[in-house]
Amino acid sequence: MSSTDEWFDDAESVAAVAVDAAADTGGGSDEAEETGPAAPVLAVVGRPNVGKSTLVNRLLGRREAVVQDVPGVTRDRVAYDAQWNGRRFTLVDTGGWEPDAKGLRASVAAQAELAMATADAVLLVVDAAAGATATDEAVARVLRRSDRPVLLAATKVDDERLLADTAALWSLGLGEPHPVSGLHGRGSGDLLDAILATLPKTPRDSLSVTGGPRRVALVGRPNVGKSSLLNRLTGQERAVVDSVAGTTIDPVDSLVELDGQIWRFVDTAGLRKRVRTASGMEYYASLRTRSAIEAAEVAVVLIDASEPMTEQDQRVIGMVEDAGRALVLAYNKWDLVDEDRRLAMRRELDRDLARVRWAQRVNVSALTGRAVTKIAPALRTALESWDRRIPTGPLNGWLSDVIAATPPPVRGGKQPKVLFVTQAQARPPTFVLFTTGFLEASYRRFLERRLREDFDFTGTPIRISVRVRERRRK
Questions:
Q1: Is 26 left (phi over 0), alpha (psi -120 to 50) or beta?
Q2: Among positive and negative, which fits the CA dihedral 257, 262, 263, 267?
């Protein structure tokens, strides 16, 4: 057996190890995630700052909802998957509900009302220490008129002294108040038992989805129109929209039908600072956004077309690229772009987006609906590239032709040989080159560019790893 044949066998074994490692990290799976049966929905409502999100985290058994000791942190209705005693259900956290709210608070209250209208049951959260306020009584009157079953949770009952105060909440006319502490977990098990006893086995309205929807993250800096675009795609006021930057705090996900296909879109908080330099709820919002990117399959990065591209825009794009997710660039607010701005954008594209020339760009307007139908084809193209796997035979045939036409540059007086290439994994496409010497970064970029051109990897990052053969002792 020749030395080249021996190396070919070693390369195959190393490639197998790489594939196994990819499977262990979840990067090598090519099958869409399957969805289980639809779960009943419980909407958690109450006036601002009574501890709804803290209680939601306690019922989930993990920290999901952003919590801070100021009113109005939660603004959208945010759904979380929950489980208790082997039964699955969905918890929908909502913003503070005030019947006579104005401005931004009115939009938050509208989201809470919509959550109640679409839920199978409602959990009203009241501060036991403060007792039933006028707002609580107004909310209770609305709930008594609804046809949804209602549970009453008296939160912030951290010790025995407040147990007697919960009896006064019978006056709300919603049945027995359940004392619970979202902070310490006191009474949370009893409350979960009561929730399961109230929820139906199956939801009233369910959307049947086969094969699992592809996951899309809407990301970008604050106030570029992510929530407006989500509302345009869903055809309803799914996310709270306001001119104040940073309106979205928690990731908001929605099932959206585009071109006959169901997608799961996740609207995320605008990334203003690096995660390690952010503080307070901005810090936790940044963590949720990063997690949403990593959980997604493709990211739509929204850029304000009416303004010059910022360093933060490039940082968000780099975050998606580093996560190895497919990418679509959406230039929003195109209705505000004039001819001078278009000329400036051409220069920006050449200067600021040179490293992601492979990403598709669509020019849209969430306000007018311009070209939003182009988003779905761009997503499909990016995901097809992200999922693509090239067989080893054609891949090595392609490599031989490329190297014959353009051999690697000489390094240290010797020209390295590329002996073998294999695709270790998809999602994103990752290739391993087995060589006799180090390959210059410029030559690796050249191979990446040829891979994109010859195999059409539009819309996805490509990773190339070089394994140098060690000399064998005689």
A1: left
A2: positive
| The residue type at 16 | A
**Of 85, 119, 91, 45, which is closest to residue 190 (Cα–Cα)?**
85
Radius of gyration of the chain (CA): 27
Nearest Cα neighbor of 75 from 99, 97, 101, 43 is 97
Rounded CA separation 305/361 (Å): 11
How many degrees, rounded to 5, is the angle at CA 141 between CA 144 and CA 65? 85
174 and 132 Cβ atoms separated by less than 8 Å: no
Query: pTM of the entire structure?
Result: 0.60
Strand-strand pairing, 360-363 and 418-425: unpaired
**φ/ψ (deg, to 5) at 140:** -65, -35
Please state whether beta strands 150-155 and 177-179 pair in parallel, antiparallel, or not at all (unpaired). parallel
- 119-163 pLDDT, tens per residue? 888 898 898 888 888 888 888 888 887 778 889 999 888 877 778
DSSP, residue by residue, 28-73: S--SPPP--S---EEEEE-STTSSHHHHHHHHHTS--S---SSTT-
For residue 133, which amino acid is it? T
